[in-house]
Amino acid sequence: xxxxxxxxxxxxxxxxxxxxxxxxxxxxxxxxxxxxxxxxxxxxxxxxxxxxxxxxxxxxxxxxxxxxxxxxxxxxxxxxxxxxxxxxxxxxxxxxxxxxxxxxxxxxxxxxxxxxxxxxxxxxxxxxxxxxxxxxxxxxxxxxxxxxxxxxxxxxxxxxxxxxxxxxxxxxxxxxxxxxxxxxxxxxxxxxxxxxxxxxxxxxxxxxxxxxxxxxxxxxxxxxxxxxxxxxxxxxxxxxxxxxxxxxxxxxxxxxxxxxxxxxxxxxxxxxxxxxxxxxxxxxxxxxxxxxxxxxxxxxxxxxxxxxxxxxxxxxxxxxxxxxxxxxxxxxxxxxxxxxxxxxxxxxxxxxxxxxxxxxxxxxxxxxxxxxxxxxxxxxxxxxxxxxxx
Length: 390
Ligand code: NDP
Ligand code: MG
Prior knowledge:
Elements: E1 3-8, H1 13-23, E2 29-35, H2 40-50, E3 54-57, H3 60-72, E4 78-81, H4 83-90, E5 97-100, H5 108-116, E6 120-123, H6 126-143, E7 146-149, H7 152-160, E8 169-176, H8 194-198, H9 207-215, H10 217-230, E9 237-241, E10 247-253, E11 258-262, H11 268-276, H12 307-318, H13 322-338, H14 344-356, H15 366-384
Parallel strand pairs: 1-2, 1-5, 2-3, 3-4, 5-6, 6-7, 8-9
Antiparallel strand pairs: 8-10, 10-11
Helix pairs in contact: 1-11, 2-3, 4-5, 5-6, 6-10, 6-13, 9-13, 10-12, 12-14, 13-14, 13-15, 14-15
This protein binds NADPH dihydro-nicotinamide-adenine-dinucleotide phosphate and magnesium ion.
C-alpha cells in the first residue's frame, strides 16, 4: 500500500522539495492533498502533475480561480477553502502522513489538528513548537502521533540519537551557518537591504526563515524547538557557527563522544529521512566528497552582531507565554522589514520592546496561545509605528 500524504504549504520551499522527493519514490507514496495560501497558479501546476484528491487555498476567491483552472485541465481534484475545511482535511482517515510546511504561526492550527488525529507528522513549522511546545508534545503523546523534524539540525539530531543511549546524552550542539552578515562591518547593519538579507550563503529558503537566519533569530527559535522535541534543558543546548553547513548538528554523550550527521546542505535529505523513516529512501542527493569540501570551522556567536539570538536564549530560559510573544513580535517585525518599512536593526528593537512589556503567564489551553499571539501582534504593531521609515 502506498503511503498517503498531505502537504500543508506545498507551494513553498519545503513543499516543493517534498514533492521532488516523492516524485523519486512514486512506488511508496501518493499525494492525497496539497494546500497553499494564495499561489493559485503554482498549486494548479502541482495538481496537474500529482492529481491529488483535494486542493486547498485560504480564500474563497482563490478557490474559484483554482476550480476554474482545474476544470480546464479536466482534473477531478476537489477544491476547498477556509480554516475549518483545512482542519477537517488534515484529520481525514485516508491520510497517513502530514507534512507541516506552512510558514509562521499560520501553520499552528492545522499542525495541531494533524497531531490530534495521531498521524505521522513531518514537522517543518518550528513556530508551532515555539508558540506552544508543551501543549503540542503533550497532544502528540495522547494521540500517539509520531513527530519527525524536517528542520535540518533537528533532523540531524534525530539521526544521531539512539534510543539505547538516551540516558547518557550530556548535551546537543546545534550548528548555524551565521547567515549573510557573519563578516559584514557592524556599522553597515543599518543599511542592510531586503535583497541582501534574503541572499543566504548556504541555504535556499522561504522569505521569513531567510530573514530569521540573517538576524539569527532562527537559531533562537531552534533552541526552543530542540528543547521540546527532545525534552532537553536550556543548559543542554549549545550552538556554534559553522559557515560551511556540512555538519548539521551533534549529540554529545557522557563518555566524551560526539556523534554528528554530515551531508550536503540540501533539504531533500532531511525530508527523505522523515518520509522514509524508519527506513531510508532515495533523496536524489549525492554523498558529499569531503576531500573537495572547504575546511570545516566552528566559532562562537557574537552578542553584538546577533542580539536576536541572545534575546531568544533569555526568552527560552523564562518560558511560559514569553516565547509565544517573541514569536509574534518577530513575525510582525520581519514582515515590516520585508515591506521595506523598517531597518534591519529595528527588528531586534521591536521584538525586545514587545517582550519587555509582557507579563509572563501560564499557557493552559490552545485558546491561550491564540489570544497571546493576537495581543502580542497588536502590541508589536503599536511599537513598530515608532520605527517606520518615512
Ligand atoms: P515558504 O514561504 O517558502 O512557503 C510557505 C508555504 O506556506 C507556502 O505554500 C504558502 O502558500 C503557505 N502559506 C503561507 N501563509 C499561509 C497561510 N496564512 N495559510 C495557509 N498557507 C500559508 O516557507 P518555507 O518552505 O521556507 O518554510 C516553511 C516552514 O518550514 C517554516 O516554518 C520554516 O521555518 C520551516 N523550515 C524551512 C526550511 C527551508 O529550507 N525552507 C528549513 C527548515 C525549516 P503560498 O505559496 O500561497 O503563499
Ligand atoms: Mg534549521
